[in-house]
Amino acid sequence: MIRPSQPTAVSRPIIEAEHLSKTYTLHKKTGRLKRERTTVEAVRDLNLAVAEGELLGYIGPNGAGKSTSIKMFTGILSPSAGRLRVAGLEPIRDRKQLARRIGVVFGQRTTLWWDLPLRDSFALLHRMYAVPDARFAANLKRLVALLELEPLLDTPVRQLSLGQRMRGDLAAALLHDPAVLYLDEPTIGLDVTSKAVVREFLAELNREQGTTIVLTTHDLDDIERLCRRVVVVDHGTVAYDGELNALRARVAADRTLVVDLAEPVPAIAVPGAAVTRIDGPRQWLAFPAEANAAALVADIAERYELLDVSIRDADIEEVIRNLYTG
Amino acid sequence: MAEQPVEPSFERRFEQRTPGAVATYLFTARMWGRSAMQYRASLVLVMVNSLFMASLELLGILVVFGNVSTLGGFSLPEALYLYGTAQAAFFTSDLLFTGTEYLAVRIRMGTFDSLLIRPVGMLPQVFADQFTPRRLTPMIPAFAALIVGLAKAPVHWTLLRAAMVPYTLLVGVVVFGAVWVLVGAFQIVAADASEVMNSVTYGGQFMTSYPLALYGRNLMLFLTFGLPLAYVNWQPTLYVLDHADPLGTPSFLRFAGPLFAAALWGVALLAWRAALRHHRSTGS
């Protein structure tokens, strides 16, 4: 398993899961009175260590155990087995204390008060989390500015657009300065502009405040733009944990070199690359991600007259698909 | 790995204390109340309607006494007092604690989890859920019956008898509070069971998730409130009105309300904790 380099400041991981498992027992009706017991392992032997200040992409197909594990990290579900610490706390036992250190945003469900102005939800959180007044005022000011919420503060939440509401939810989750922010599909259903605002905000939050972010998403653009480290969960366990680039290299080994030649020629024959497509004077060559692209280009340039070259990384979506199926 | 002290970096958060149960209840209920006030016209209509329904029930008692002068040994004022204490205690508890009734819906919608991620107690949040001033109006006929009954009943007033009146109400509200907790615990377990079932068998389209909450509500209320009522309302009222118990129960039972209330709360809290534990192990 490939792991990214640890931050230099040696500290205990803010999320540490060791051999974490979650088993559900289901009672299935098989007759009028008979019931059949089946157990489903939603999470099995999951190991994860997240350092403070990381921005982690937490992805996987539906039903892979993502939500179940996030629910364990946030103190909603109790693990069946294994050891779990978040911010040094045991999520279920220390639920209230943990709640003060985490923020949670569910993309499809708002925690804001539907019928009341946005401002009122923030005021409630102020009291609920007992945020000191000066701190609250400063945080509110900062978040309102960053998320452009000023004109929306007095609007009832039900009247906000999806993107506006998401920005409101983000602010709500951060007013108490959580150390860890969990995001479940924060960009789902948002238009391109709103997506960009949310992504930029998250990147800045992570950079400036050092907030650890665990991002669950099906939008691989989110991952590509925000996360260096990616954890892929499949069949209830960690299928991949490492850098996004390394994931590309590991799964879809090939990058693509596109060359424009002076004139059409038969398929170029160079060691370490294979032509996948020819269109007039343009040819596409697949080569392993870890291979030296410069050397390959030099090799070709030696034998052909090159007008232009470009290199394309494997599409992340393709990479993930390969990983799930492979 | 050996236990290490928590890194100081995790501790840069505030040291202030979490709000207590009463504070949590009050600010949550206030948000719900204000939400309800956003739809003023509808609120007024519903309030008028529930006032009407509750008054109709009272009218029924008056009609019965139009034909007979005593019922089970109780005169009209006595019956009004008995009815008034029971209703007043019930509707006060309904105003304060019925949030537990919405738990099945919350679990089905997945919004129960958003209560679990708050740094405050679960019960105060749940009690205050969907708080609405709508529930104030049924208290009007209840208290009217109580006051009229008291004024007209031939009570031989002593200090103790007078103190028994607010006491009856208080114990009643407390006992009913415990019953609402039990209702909540049941809803969690029932909703979880059907949710987990549905996700496997019917893909969630089957709507029978809340057997008690939706269908047998009246039956459930009768069964769950019937027994406690005997202790919180009937027994102290026997004392105030100086009646012997037709069932011949010993007279110390007239004052056993708090013991009963404490025992019921004990059971209710155990059930509540078990339900939460159950939810956390099944999820949905």
Give a description of the structure:
The complex is a heterodimer of chains A (326) and B (284). Chain A has two domains: 15-249, Rossmann fold, CATH 3.40.50; 254-325, Alpha-Beta Plaits, CATH 3.30.70. Helices cover 33% and strands 30% of the residues of chain A. Chain A is built from ten helices and 13 strands. The two termini of chain A are 16 Å apart. A two-stranded antiparallel sheet of chain B has the order 1-2. The model of chain B is unreliable at 1-14 and 196-216 (pLDDT under 50). Chain B has one domain. At the A-B interface, strand 1, helix 2, strand 5 and helix 3 of A face helix 1, helix 5, helix 8 and helix 11 of B.
Summary tags:
heterodimer; A: 326 residues; alpha/beta; Rossmann fold; Alpha-Beta Plaits; 6-stranded mixed β-sheet; 4-stranded antiparallel β-sheet; globular; disordered N terminus; B: 284 residues; mainly alpha; two-stranded antiparallel sheet; 69% helix; ABC-2 family transporter protein (chain B); transmembrane helix (chain B)
